[in-house]
Amino acid sequence: MDNHEALAKMNQVEGFNPLDFARTIISTDGQPSLYLDVKHRVAWFRLKYPLGKISKTITQLDEKMAIVECRIYKEASDSADAYFANGFGQRYLETENAYGSRYLEWAETAAIGRALSAAGFNIATGSEIDDEAGQVDSGVPIADNAKVSVSNPLNKQQKNEHPVNAPLSSYKQDSPVDEILRVMPLDKAKQIVVPFNGKNQGKTLAQVAIDDPSTLGWIVSNYSGPNNELRAAAKLLLNASTQNAA
Questions:
Q1: One digit per residue, pLDDT tens: the chain, 246 residues?
Q2: What residues are paired with 54 via a beta bridge?
Q3: Between the CA of residue 161 and those of 168, 183, 185, what are the distances in Å?
Q4: Of 33, 116, 172, 223, whose CB neighbour count within 10 A is largest?
Q5: Cβ neighbours of residue 15 under 8 Å, at least 6 residues apart?
Q6: Alpha-carbon distance 104 to 102, whole Å?
Q7: Pick from 44, 58, 64: which is nearest to 88 by CA?
Q8: Residues 6+ apart with CB under 8 A from 41
């Protein structure tokens, strides 16, 4: 196991591999590095701790500079001083920079990213800031002989899941949910597409789990359509995230 994979397993969640969402950047020394955007760190945290909290506080703000502190809590009900990681972001007004006019938002994003890194939700351990690229910290250098898979998560086969091509017991979309759950592998559940109108229409449930995880709960509890395959798949993904958060 290389360093990238070891870091990715620090807060392991079944069905979610942060390396699948990493992108390659060029660091300040001209070398390629893997980088995990803050939005994916947030999604990772939400999957690991669905009842957790990401709290932000503006500690200093004027017309030229902002400082934001972020604190990470495993439970939303935890007291203010019961956080298990925190981080600060400081940004200045820079009219020539694409991000510089939104320095408060940028400081907030930096604080969130660095706090989540401190909590282990990153594939890097460093904290060097690369402002020019709009990043909040450094990436992980890619060694010449490194074999890192940065692939589509829908094509990644998870341990103890049914292989994608394995024969499965047949079911119909209107089969009972419990019957579908007995034979549906997690990999299949991720590929189910949201059919109804709305902001998530056309997305796979794997995408919904990252972008808007609360929708999974809505599908399980409130969806009234005839598609039990959709309902079962959402429940399977919710159960997987809950088991890993326990």
A1: 455 566 667 788 888 888 888 888 776 667 777 888 999 999 999 999 999 999 999 999 988 899 999 999 999 999 999 999 999 999 988 877 666 678 888 899 999 999 999 999 988 754 444 433 345 554 555 555 444 444 333 333 333 333 333 334 567 888 898 889 888 888 888 889 988 888 888 888 888 887 888 888 889 888 888 899 999 999 988 877 655 444
A2: 72
A3: 12, 11, 6
A4: 116
A5: 153, 158, 186, 190, 206, 237, 240, 241
A6: 6
A7: 58
A8: 18, 112, 113, 116, 117, 121, 122
Q: Is 60 exposed, middle or buried (CB count within 10 Å of its CB: 0-12, 13-18, 19+)?
A: exposed
**107 membership: H or E segment, kind and range:** helix 103-118
Q: 98 with 22: CB under 8 angstroms?
A: no
What is the dihedral sign for C-alpha 69, 73, 77, 81?
A: negative
Q: Are 18 and 39 in contact (CB under 8 A)?
A: no
